[in-house]
Structures are given as C-alpha cells and as structure tokens.
Specification:
With 402 residues, the chain is mostly beta strands. It is built from five helices and 29 strands.
Length: 402
C-alpha cells in the first residue's frame, strides 16, 4: 500500500491564494485519509484534518490549506531608523503535512500507509488572480544565477524626498549567500557622485528588508545634490543578486507638511508613500453616561443638590470616544502611480509614521479610486486625496506633525 502525492503547492506560496494538495492511494479499501499539518521548525501540530475521498476518485482526496495557514502568518513591522537590514519571522511559516490512509480491514477502520511531504513555506500575501497565475516560486526568492525581484508592485523610477521611508523586501531559502547592498547617487549627467555600501550580512531568517530610506543612506546635502539614486543587492564577490531599483529625488517645498504612510502590499512587503498638507478633523462620538444622585452632603453636613452654590452633577461620563481623521493629498501622480496607490485601499495593515520610531495603525475611509488615464482628465495634475482615520486615543496634536 502506498500514497501518491499528485498535486502540491509551490515551495513559497502566498497565504491568501490556493494551497492545494491532492493525494491518491493504491488501496481499494480506502475509506478516508487523515492529514496532520505541522510547523516544520517547532514540530507543533497546526491542524489535524479528515479528508473524504472524492466522488470522481474513490481512492483520492484533495485539500486547500489556505484558510488554515493564513491564520498562522501575521503582521510584522519595524521602524526605519535603526538598521540597514531587518529580518522577519512572523510573516512566514515553514510547514509539512503527513497523510495517512484509513482503510476497511475486515470491518475495522485501520491506519495504513503514510506519506510525509517535504517542507513548504507560506508567506503573508494575497496576489491577484493574474499575478498568481504568472507567479513562480523563485520570483521573490534568492536563486543562484537569477536576479530576484523585490516584494512590491511599486513602480520603479518614482520620486521620493529626503524624509520618505522606503523598504525593499525579498526572501531566501536554501541559498544563503553573504550579502551587501550598494547605493549609488547620480547627478543630472548620469555621473555617480556618491556611493554607499552596507556592511556585509548573512541571516537564516527567510524574509529580509533593505532600508532604502534616504536619511539612512545619505546626508541631506548629498541627497539634494543628486538627481536620482539606485539600490541593488550583491553577494560578497560583487555578483548582482537582485534587480536594480531607482529613486528620483523630489525636493518638496519647505512649506509642505509631510506624512509617511506605509502598508502591507499584496506581494507580502510594505510599501510607503509621502502624503502632503494634512487637514485634521477632530470629533467626539456619542458619550456614554449614567444618571447619578445629585443629592449629597455639603460642607455643613446637610443633604443638598449643591455645595455653596456649586451644583452637583446629575450624570457621570463613563467614556467619550474621540475620532481624529486627516485628509491628505498626493503629489501629482502619473498613471502608473495612480494604479499602484489603489492597492492602499484594500490593504489589511496600514500604518502612519508619527516620528522616527513611532507608527500607529490607521484605516483608509475611501473605498474607491478613479483610475482614469491623465489624458482623459481635465485636471492633468491628477492629485488624489485620502482620508486617514486614526483609532480612539491617539492625538497627533501632541506630536507636532500637523
């Protein structure tokens, strides 16, 4: 007796997309299968499942593990001020599955053959249908002899300013070279005017972020002297490991108030954008109060509704939730920037940068975005406005960023 694995997912699979396994047994007395999903690192059991044979294949079964594994990967974010390189473990899970036959043995259900899969990885991501159709497991994973892509749909050659935050995410598996990142700043004549290289690094963690924030790489004078700069990952022998990302310098007017927003993108990394000129709206929602007895002893010991002319309260406020929302604006957008920013509306994790080390969760109140090409828009500047909703208890006025 034996179990055959007929279908299995890619080595690195987005958690929000299908994670399909299909098995078949050569035992004609098979009744059902069990599947035990385990964390490949800790060996802890994630789920034990009962798989019925399919009507079209009485000795086979299939299962989609997406809904189970998606709950075992979570958000993980750190600030951009501390390190050139950060690694993450919560956004990815290594797992394996053991399938067991349960067959009819003279009227008794008996465990038969087992099959344990190789180790697979699921990472926090949810690609759209077309992107997932074209997705290969090496797309964002370091592979010898292949330039890895970063986990973003953010267009290349976008403008950022000196206060922008920017991170590039990628993954690694068995291939774990000694790495470094090289940043090159160019002037308008495409001549290199500044080069910065991170210290070499290695890590066993599978998700890695490169800090490309200008403040981390250049002084303000070096940044302002450049027309654009590039970032690329190399091994210790100066062999390129990744695509080149290019950022153009946007020297915003000093009068602009700037707010950085970062969000989990569909590819599993965090994208960022610098919005300008926030307009705050502060409001208090319905107060929660209770009625109380206003007859109390005054300073002379008499029961009264006042004390020397100061009348007692008749209600007590238990809570008064507050809401602070910010209307923020983009800089003039190209068509491709407009399409990319629409991803912000459906991100499950959005953060607003308050200062270098403080980020707070927010929500975007808009649920649609016009994607009409600029050539068909009267306002060719194509400036978009978003409303950022802050949770109760956060008052940005104390941070002096408005």
């Amino acid at each position: 007796m034996a179990i055959t694995l007929n279908n299995f997912p890619k080595n690195f699979t987005p958690s929000g997309n299908a994670i399909m396994f299909a098995i078949n047994s050569d035992n004609s007395d098979i009744v059902y299968f069990t599947a035990e999903v385990k964390d490949a690192v800790t060996s802890n059991t994630i789920a034990t499942l009962h798989l019925e044979c399919t009507p079209s294949n009485q000795t086979g079964a299939y299962i989609n593990l997406s809904s189970i594994l998606n709950s075992y990967v979570g958000y993980e974010f750190t600030n951009y001020v501390d390190n050139y390189i950060d690694t993450y473990t919560k956004q990815i899970l290594s797992y394996k599955v053991t399938f067991t036959e349960m067959y009819n043995n003279a009227g008794a259900i008996t465990a038969g053959a087992t099959l344990t899969t190789d180790i697979f990885n699921v990472f926090l991501s949810n690609l759209d249908t077309i992107s997932y159709f074209n997705y290969t497991e090496n797309t964002y994973v370091l592979t010898s002899g292949q330039l890895a892509k970063f986990m973003t749909a953010k267009p290349n050659n976008l403008k950022i300013n000196y206060d922008s935050i920017e991170g590039l995410y990628f993954m690694q598996d068995a291939y774990k070279p000694t790495m470094k990142v090289v940043f090159k700043a160019y002037n308008t004549s495409n001549t290199i005017i500044q080069t910065a290289t991170t210290p070499t690094f290695t890590t066993t963690n599978k998700i890695i972020r490169i800090n490309c924030s200008p403040k981390k790489i250049f002084t303000e004078a070096q940044f302002n002297a450049a027309a654009y700069f590039t970032a690329q990952l190399f091994d210790n022998s100066n062999v390129a490991l990744s695509e080149i990302r290019t950022y153009y310098v946007d020297q915003m007017p000093c009068s602009f108030k700037k707010l950085n927003v970062t969000w989990l993108n569909r590819q599993g990394g965090y994208d960022s954008y610098t919005f300008v000129n926030p307009e705050p709206t502060y409001s208090t929602t319905s107060r929660n109060t209770i009625q109380i007895n206003n007859m109390k002893a005054d300073s002379t010991g008499l029961i009264s509704d006042n004390n020397a002319g100061i009348f007692n309260q008749t209600t007590k406020q238990l809570s008064a939730p507050t809401e602070l929302s910010l209307k923020v604006n983009t800089r003039p957008l190209t068509d491709i920037e407009n399409y990319w920013l629409a991803d912000l509306l459906q991100s499950p994790h959005v953060l607003l940068q308050v200062n270098d080390t403080v980020f707070i969760p927010i929500s975007i109140t808009e649920n649609n975005q016009v994607l009409t090409s600029r050539r068909y828009i009267k306002d060719t500047a194509n400036i978009k406005q978003y409303t950022l909703q802050l949770p109760d208890g956060f008052n940005l006025l104390s941070f002096n960023i408005l």
